[in-house]
Design goal:
By secondary structure, the protein is of the alpha/beta class. The chain is built from eleven helices and eight strands. The longest helix is centred in the C-terminal third of the chain and has 20 residues.
Length: 274
Amino acid sequence: MKLNKGNIYLPKNRKSQPVKWLCICAHQDDCEIMAIDGILKGYYSKKYSFALVETTDGGGSARTGKFANYTDDEMKQVRIKEQQAASEVGKYNSLYMLDYSSKEVKDRNNDDIVADYVNIIKELKPQVIYTHSILDKHPTHIGVVLKVIKALRSLPKEEQPKLFYGCEVWRGLDWISDERKIGFDVSRNERLQKKILDVFESQIAGGKAYTKASIGRRYQNATYFQSHSVDSFKMISYAIDMKPLLKNPQLSVKEFALSFVDDLRNEISELIGE
């Protein structure tokens, strides 16, 4: 497959079964934070596998400690190796590293990225796609999800995924109304979950305790999911269903996003009742 930018990495211990679960994310380690449901399913499945499309080059990462004096080019190489290591730990089918800058991702007119997404989706034919939530607060994450939506809307219905999830990274989804919130049971193999996050040493050394925060969020989601019953799961990862944006290509992304806020407002109003 020819990409406009970037390359394809095949892990040494890759699972070669057809890709059922695909994550499309902005940065190195976003996938391991938000798409652990797909990673675990691919890791344990005997029929299907998991793949990752990582969009940015990692050059703008925060750095301190032993990485404090690294140049952008040096950080890019570090981040590439870390993402490759995560793909080995998780036994991904394949890793697409597109090598775009955050500026390019946030450029609404940059369709090279959209074209790369389309080509990858056509090639892999995933049944499930995980990407950033349209409720995320990171501008580059929003840049990615808008391009993913544009790519999927350009495809015939039969080539679109059966399931399309927006996942939590830079904004939790615990506040979403329960009727619209999707909770993935990710209680299995906490050791693997920690190991796959710990490979991103440059981010942890940079002062971001992503492993503790991500595992903690999953525990928190499970514990605070229901107030009047005991926990059904040990760990939960949240997402929202973004398939309505594909079923109705005319549906405004902004209005769809704000509908979740309207639901919260109505729920709070009803509970207070004044």
